[in-house]
Every structure is written in structure tokens, then in C-alpha cells.
Amino acid sequence: MRKWFLVLVIVIVAGTVIWGCNRENGENETEAFSFVVYPGSRYLADLTELTKRAHKVLSPNQPETPPTAIYDTDASLEDVANFYAKSYGYASVAPDATNNLSAAKPQAYYRSGDLATDTKAIQPLLQKMGVSTDASKATGGYRAAEISPKQNRPRVTVQRPYFDVMKSQVVDRTLILMAR
Would 30 be classed as within a structural domain? Predict the structure, then answer.
């Protein structure tokens, strides 16, 4: 499952993921699904549409893509991660997924990765989609935060820096990927 998540995130921005969550059943379906947008962030329409296309390629039998939106901002990774953790009602962002070796996985946590490794992992998907990118430009590490979804709110992945596969460049801004 983690590899699936990693592959999807990287499609959009080497290191960001897209994955579809199953629709919730019951009374929650009638409530509106909404994105909380970080103040001052800018919407990345091209990367959002690329992510939706990647979802269709990876899940061709699903009738529609899940709600997805990608933004970026100059704000620090920590500021953005804390904003989403607090807006979702989580106390803090854990230093990593082990949550200090607790049995329970934290609702919000930091992780790290390598842009080159992530971009290489999605090359076959990008080729299948007809997207050419210069993967040799995807260099360096990144830090990210994963924020678990809440009722009618998406999972949020925050990453800095990120690799823009459409422009073949590392972008030193904080990427915000929200997907249901």
C-alpha cells in the first residue's frame, strides 16, 4: 500500500501522491465534501489534472476520479503541516510514522524521501500517460507530512521541495496535495 501511495504522489510532483479513497457509506454521504485551502496558496491546475489522469490510468474501472486539488505556497512545511493538523483537530504532527514506537499510527506525521528515487519509480506511468520529463533534474531529498482524512475532508500530503514533472524542475515551495 505504501508503494502505491508513493507512486501516485510522485506522478504529480515527484514525491506527492495520489490515491483514491473509497467513498464513505451512510449518513456522511449527504454532507458536502470540502477542501480547506491554506491561506495565500496558489492552485496548480496542470498538476491537479495530471494527477486525475494518473488515477484514471491506475484505476481504469473506477467511474470517476476522487476529488483532488494541488496547491503550493512559500510558507514553510512545518507551518502548513501544523495548519492542517490543527484544522483537522489533531494535537500535533508526530516526528515520524512510528509515533515514538507507539502501537497506534499517528493521525499526522512527518516523513522524508528522495526526489530522484520517487521520480524513477513513476517513469513507466508517466510514459504510459505520454508525459515526458527529464528525471535527471529530480535531485535531492525532501521532507513531507501526511495528514489523515477526517469526515468529509481529504487526506493531505504536504511536501517541500517537490519535483514538477511537467516542467522538469525542482521547486523550492511547499506543495499541498489533497485527495479523498
Answer: no
At position 99, the amino acid (one-letter code) is N
Inter-residue contact 123 to 75 (CB < 8 Å):
no
**pLDDT tens profile 75-120:** 999 999 999 999 999 999 999 888 666 667 899 999 999 999 999 9
- Whether residue 62 lies inside any domain: the answer is yes
In whole angstroms, what separates CA 50 from the centre of its chain?
A: 13
pTM > 0.85: yes or no: no
Q: What angle do CA 23, 147, 81 make, to 5 degrees?
A: 145
Task: Give strand pairing partners of 178.
Answer: 69, 156
Task: Please provide the distance, in angstroms rounded to a whole number, between the alpha carbons at the two ends of the chain.
Answer: 16
Residue 69 grid cell: 486539488
Query: Cell numbers of 62, please?
Result: 473506477
